[in-house]
Specification:
120 residues, mainly beta, 2 helices, globular
Length: 120
Amino acid sequence: MATLTPMLWVPDMHEAMVWYQSLGFDVVSTDEEVQAPGEIGWCMLALQGAHMMLRPGGSHDADGHGHITLSFDVEDVQALFASLPSMVEVVYPPRVQPYGRTDFEVRDRYGYRLLFGQKT
């Protein structure tokens, strides 16, 4: 079964994690073990069975609004990548990540990033 996880790009990971925890979100996992000391490259949060991720960076507009990546957990990432139409803008092709997943990323025609992955 495929699932969808929104990924929010934030300017300060630690501040964002504290803020979401104050709303009742639990920190499910992070990649702190593969980052430089004190840095976090991503964070998975959960609230009542719903999940979302935080990532550092991303650009924000003049009003401070951020960008979002939608992260899809799929059954066969390689087959999905092979079936992409040629008009799709590939941000990066399938690659094995240090956190135990294989994923690839595309950008839709409006600039939103879509990440497709599966456990390796």
